[in-house]
Write the structure tokens for this entry.
Amino acid sequence: MIKPVLVANSLAITVFILRLVLTIKAFLFPGLFAWEYKAMTMGQNTAFVNPTGQEAIITIVIPAIAAWAIGFLWALVYNHLAKK
């Protein structure tokens, strides 16, 4: 049995740190960020990706909240299936 809150917290912290690093990179090195993002998305246009101000905070916080919810539900489903 795994603890749902621990799984949710670890996934949310991981996503938060990753998004924070990517956002900082977008502000400090926009050319490098655009090149890496283009490589990750198989060549899609990245002109709209660079967040500014409040958008930067939203792009960090919302994915972390979603990751927490997904991690919590994932652990609950795992525990339910592990009992069977």
Observations:
- The two ends are 12 Å apart (CA to CA).
- Helices lie at 4-28, 30-40, 54-83.
- The mean pLDDT is 88.
